[in-house]
């Protein structure tokens, strides 16, 4: 038996806070792991991230009538004024600015079309540990993307994405076919690299509408789903759609297949709500606007099917009596591995946590 997924949030980790396109030269706020963060892009184009609370009386700086004047934020309540480094440069009614008047800053990096922010001790932030999703910012790939709010703890979305057998039931008529649930998975956990891999290779499967309308293939296909999850935030699904019997060439080229990289950034907003960032990158029909519109609309629909189910599930796990248990089977191997890794990230420093169990 298994405990239901926890609401504990990892700290000292990178999370996707936004798409780069969302941040311009205006005040923008998003809550990550319960911390309300103020973002804006300076005149020179850099993204800044700082606490969205004025040090004076905690007025949210993202809130009108707070204004951005050149590269300074003027609090809309009493006028405390901050520079791009978070330091207060002016206060009303006195010339001396208290030395401690500064907003906490967050390490922030733009990479692969995402704005990544570090939650935790800034001294521990290492940009080289941010996992990559290079397809999202690569001219060889065409991308559609979006973000949906989820009123459920982020672990429920991790569970959902690591067990795609639910496609057959929750997403029938979109991406689900009988073979997804019927085909066993292989799971691999690499604790050193911080990745959980789950693969499902379907040699002879029905082609769901999501792929038949986008690739032009119909009837039976070869369909591979290779997941790599980098806890806590980045999830990638390498999806390969090909005519029956087709396999990649020994040199690694794969000219007969269609490749789709499905990327999710799973960012806790609070302990029980989540930002569900999704993107679909493809290496075919790259200039076909109709295919882009179709995939965007289909994937958003699929994401909203998950959102509806998980919003309900959150209410259930939040209100079930303490001690309620789940029953796990083979399909849950990847999800349980992810839970173990996440538990290790949320454990208090020095606590012994079981990791690496396979
Ligand atoms: S709360 Fe911002 S200046 Fe008073
Ligand atoms: Fe789903």
TrEMBL record:
<dbReference type="InterPro" id="IPR017941">
    <property type="entry name" value="Rieske_2Fe-2S"/>
</dbReference>
<dbReference type="InterPro" id="IPR036922">
    <property type="entry name" value="Rieske_2Fe-2S_sf"/>
</dbReference>
<dbReference type="InterPro" id="IPR050584">
    <property type="entry name" value="Cholesterol_7-desaturase"/>
</dbReference>
<keyword id="KW-0411">Iron-sulfur</keyword>
<feature type="domain" description="Rieske">
    <location>
        <begin position="14"/>
        <end position="117"/>
    </location>
</feature>
<keyword id="KW-0001">2Fe-2S</keyword>
<dbReference type="Pfam" id="PF19112">
    <property type="entry name" value="VanA_C"/>
</dbReference>
<keyword id="KW-0479">Metal-binding</keyword>
<dbReference type="Pfam" id="PF00355">
    <property type="entry name" value="Rieske"/>
</dbReference>
<keyword id="KW-0408">Iron</keyword>
<keyword id="KW-0560">Oxidoreductase</keyword>
<keyword id="KW-0223">Dioxygenase</keyword>
<dbReference type="GO" id="GO:0051213">
    <property type="term" value="F:dioxygenase activity"/>
</dbReference>
<protein>
    <submittedName>
        <fullName>Aromatic ring-hydroxylating dioxygenase subunit alpha</fullName>
    </submittedName>
</protein>
<dbReference type="InterPro" id="IPR044043">
    <property type="entry name" value="VanA_C_cat"/>
</dbReference>
């Amino acid at each position: 038996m298994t405990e239901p997924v926890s609401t504990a949030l990892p700290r000292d980790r990178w999370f996707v806070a936004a798409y780069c396109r969302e941040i311009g030269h205006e005040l923008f706020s998003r809550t990550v792991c319960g911390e309300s963060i103020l973002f804006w892009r300076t005149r020179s184009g850099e993204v800044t991230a700082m606490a969205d609370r004025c040090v004076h009386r905690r007025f949210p700086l993202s809130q009108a009538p707070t204004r951005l004047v050149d590269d300074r934020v003027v609090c809309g309540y009493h006028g405390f004024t901050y520079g791009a480094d978070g330091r207060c440069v002016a206060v009303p009614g006195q010339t001396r600015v208290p030395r401690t008047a500064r907003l906490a800053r967050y390490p922030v990096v733009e990479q692969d079309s995402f704005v990544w922010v570090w939650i935790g001790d800034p001294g521990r932030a290492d940009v080289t540990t941010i996992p990559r999703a290079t397809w999202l910012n690569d001219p060889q790939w065409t991308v559609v993307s979006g973000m949906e709010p989820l009123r459920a703890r982020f672990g429920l979305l991790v569970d959902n994405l690591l067990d795609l057998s639910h496609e057959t039931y929750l997403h029938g008529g979109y991406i689900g076919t009988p073979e997804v649930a019927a085909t066993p998975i292989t799971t691999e956990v690499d604790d050193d690299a911080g990745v959980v891999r789950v693969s499902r290779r379907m040699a002879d499967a029905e082609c769901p509408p999501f792929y038949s309308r986008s690739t032009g293939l119909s009837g039976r296909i070869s369909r591979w789903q290779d997941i790599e999850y980098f806890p806590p935030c980045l999830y990638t699904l390498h999806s390969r759609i090909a005519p029956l019997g087709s396999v990649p060439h020994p040199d690694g080229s794969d000219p007969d297949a269609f490749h789709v990289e499905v990327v999710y950034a799973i960012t806790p907003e609070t302990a029980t709500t989540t930002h569900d960032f999704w993107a679909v990158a493809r290496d075919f029909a790259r200039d076909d606007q109709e295919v882009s519109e179709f995939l965007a609309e289909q994937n958003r629909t699929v994401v909203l099917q998950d959102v509806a189910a998980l919003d309900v599930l959150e209410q259930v796990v939040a209100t079930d009596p303490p001690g309620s248990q789940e029953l796990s089977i083979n399909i849950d191997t990847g999800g349980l591995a992810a839970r173990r890794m996440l538990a290790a990230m949320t454990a208090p420093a020095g606590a012994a946590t079981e990791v690496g169990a396979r």
